[in-house]
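To whoever is on call:

I kicked off a structure prediction for a single chain this morning and the downstream step that reads the tokens threw a length-mismatch warning. I double-checked the sequence; it's 151 residues and nothing unusual in it as far as I can see. Pasting both halves so you can look.
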Amino acid sequence: MAIELKAVSFRIEDEKFAIDINHVDTVIEYQKTTKVPESLDFIEGIVNFRNGVLPVVNLRIKFNYPQFEDKNKAKVLVVKIEDKKFGLMVDEVKEVINIKQEQVEEPPTVGGAKADYISGIIKTDDSMIFLIDVEKILSKEEKIELEKVIK
């Protein structure tokens, strides 16, 4: 029996990405964020979420894509690492996909260690999808910065 992974796929520009569904809490519509002074440039800001505060990371900025033309069309993927939740701002959330182990290739080693959050490349019949390791999407320093935003 091949190991299967369920993942939520999403799009930034023309590229497809996916995150293990076990790390995904929900998907919400983009709502205007409150910018946090002196926060990292890819931290879009904070929003009200389930009686608390949710920091939102702009993945276009984090992954060095051009800024959103219209942020109101963006979606926010609410993800959780340990007991912390934060939002990932993306162009579009696509679907839940089933991934077989044999579909996942090792990520290419291009450009050094910067993209160590890419845990694999999923090959489908018509495309390639970057499998993102949510726990590595932020560096240790960036996680500390994000926690400052939450407090």
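Update from on-call: the warning came from a stale cache, not from the record. Cleared it. Sanity check on the structure: The longest helix spans residues 140-150.
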